[in-house]
Amino acid sequence: MNAPAPRTGHAEGFRELVNSRRAVRRFTAEVVPDDVIRQCLELAMLAPSSCNLQPWSFQVVRDPAVLQRLHRVCLGQSAAKAPLIITVLARTGTWDQACRDVLRFWPAPSVPEAIERFYTNTAPFQYNQGWMGWRGFFKRQWVRLAGLGRAVMRTPNSQEQMRLWAVKSTALAAQNLMLAFQSHGYSTCPMEGFDEKRLKRVLPIPRDANAIMLLAVGMPGERAVYNPRLRFPLEQSVSWH
Ligand SMILES: Cc1cc2nc3c(=O)[nH]c(=O)nc-3n(C[C@H](O)[C@H](O)[C@H](O)COP(=O)(O)O)c2cc1C
Q1: Which atom of ligand 1 is nearest to the CA of 78?
Q2: Residue 71 near residue 83, CB atoms below 8 Å
Q3: Domain 23-224 has CATH 1.10.10.10
Q4: Scanning 89, 193, 225, 238, which has the fewest C-beta atoms within 10 Å of its C-beta?
Q5: For the Nitroreductase domain, which residue ranges apply (predicted)?
Q6: Mind listing the pLDDT tens digit for each residue in 98-154?
Q7: Ligand 1 center from residue 44 Cα (angstroms)
């Protein structure tokens, strides 16, 4: 398949969109319409993901009673007084269903053989860490040996590496989500200032899920942004080779 034709002429618009996003800590009570939420989630899910296994899930909270409880879970911080909070979950346990789903939802009448092989053999080998990580343990030894003479895929071979694996792709989806809301005129604040344990008492967080952030969304209120934007100089973070 050919790649879609490159879209030119959007650089300035994209720059403006990215530039205009700020972490907003005060929201009005204005409700975010469901169709906007849905459109933004669709764009979030267009994020790239490792092996296209899409290890994210989202919980959309609009119920005022639940939001009130979440405000306490978020340590009472002001950003959490938003009319909409979306929990962004990185899942380490959905890869096997996802392998089956890739084949199930394959967007063509038949699944190419190489794809079928990859999602029935290679990917399960890569992501199955076994009960209590025993497979991962053996894979780590194998990787050490096989990697002596050639480049090998060294991770994820433990539950902890699976967590990182899932978080990487999910964080990309979270950024898409923030920019999507921004493009609809809504502001956001990503929050990791929350009590994970108490979150589980409020929402049905699956056992394999890592709540990487709670995203507050709404219309910006008065003095919504606390500080001027600050970023370190580019040279400090970038090296060229
Ligand atoms: C993973 C993550 C967690 C964050 N957690 C919080 C939070 O709990 N509360 C908050 O007010 N801001 C939070 N922020 C927002 C950052 O403080 C903010 O993005 C940063 O200060 C830069 O400001 P800017 O986004 O307006 O450019 C978080 C941002 C990220 C990416």
Answers
A1: 11
A2: no
A3: no
A4: 238
A5: 19-218
A6: 999 999 999 999 999 999 999 999 999 999 999 989 999 999 999 999 999 999 999
A7: 18
